[in-house]
UniProtKB/TrEMBL annotation, chains A, B:
Residues 47-66 bind DNA. The keyword DNA-binding applies. Residues 1-10 have a biased composition (Low complexity). Transmembrane segments: none annotated. It comes from the Bacteria. One of its GO terms (molecular function) is DNA-binding transcription factor activity. Signal peptide: none annotated. Keywords: DNA-binding. This is TetR family transcriptional regulator. It comes from Streptomyces thermolilacinus SPC6. Residues 1-25 are annotated as: Disordered.
Length: 203, 203
């Protein structure tokens, strides 16, 4: 999904073709609209038409980019997960408490809400399930990798891998709790306490 | 919902009226069928008719017990949560690791799956949302109370309350992870490690 064109190091970067630019911008608008739609309306309420309208794109153009509804929503969740992952990288060098807070924030925003709707729909829809399972595993591995790096965790020490996994499971559980009630003050207290436990466990 | 009749201690227990018995048994069958149905088919696929058929009860009889679809499914999730809470009480006196395992198991079975479908549906349906939010808060408070008791946690010590809350959030997150992939071996390793950390934190 990245830019696959290669440019010789010595050549000046060519001016991007305006048409290709427009196509990329349309694709991005569709992906962002798809995540917002899924987060707000759930799977049942999220159709290609609804997303196209929200993105200000014709239904035909949307189908040019994404052949099926499943293609659109899987790409959307993956796209936003990659954006968030980029944002996490900027935290390198911050304190452990700040990193834990940022990791928990990953699971309490619209992306998590959108992903949750997709997971729940996938658990009942056989044609969606294997693709969502694969995507979720990939996004989960990336989150774990980032967490280990940012927390400065040494996974060669017994128990450290499971400590980090448990932390991400807790973040996911906190995200679920915010689905119905936004309990930010409670969440902040739990995060502060578990950051302390984590400090003890990671040394 | 409990048995509200009172019997003087000295009198022999009266034989229960068969009609009342049948009515209670029907109600229980409907509640159990509703949870199973919600866990397997999700909110969209769970109608009163589907549940009545599964319970072997006429649609009219189902509506005699539960006036609306919302009434049926809220009562079902509450009923099963109470059953699980009763089962937890039997763990009194077990080791901390066993208690943590049992608490996590609360969030990885069909009850959690059913509740999750109800939460996700409620997050999009204004008429369902306040009732599910209230039920979830009540069930959550009870789970916290039981966890504190069974873990022998002293909440007057700073941080202990948040430690137990974080543990239940982690259990919820582990339950969410099992929605698509059943990762029981990973779960067991995370639970074992966090039981050790918990031992350190609770003293």
């Amino acid at each position: 999904m990245g830019d696959m064109t290669t440019t010789p190091a010595s050549a000046p970067a060519p001016a991007p073709a305006p048409k290709q630019d427009r196509s990329r911008a349309t694709r991005r608008r569709l992906l962002e609209a798809a995540v917002a739609c899924l987060a707000e309306r759930g799977w049942q309420g999220s159709t290609v038409s609804v997303v196209a309208e929200r993105a200000g794109v014709s239904r035909g153009a949307a189908q040019h980019h994404f052949r099926t509804r499943e293609d659109l929503f899987l790409a959307a969740v993956e796209y936003v997960a990659e954006e968030r992952s980029q944002a996490l990288r900027a935290l390198d060098g911050r304190s452990r408490a700040e990193v834990v807070e940022a990791l928990v924030a990953l699971y309490t925003g619209p992306l998590f809400r959108a992903a949750l709707h997709l997971w729940v729909a996938a658990s009942d829809e056989p044609q969606l399930r294997p693709r969502v399972t694969e995507l979720e595993a990939r996004v989960g591995r990336e989150a774990h990798r980032m967490a280990v790096e940012l927390l400065g965790a040494d996974e060669s020490v017994p128990g450290v891998r499971e400590t980090v996994q448990g932390l991400l499971d807790m973040a996911r559980g906190l995200g679920l709790a915010t689905l119905l009630t936004d309990d930010a003050p409670r969440r902040a207290r739990v995060v502060a306490q578990w950051s302390r436990l984590l400090d003890g466990a990671l040394g």
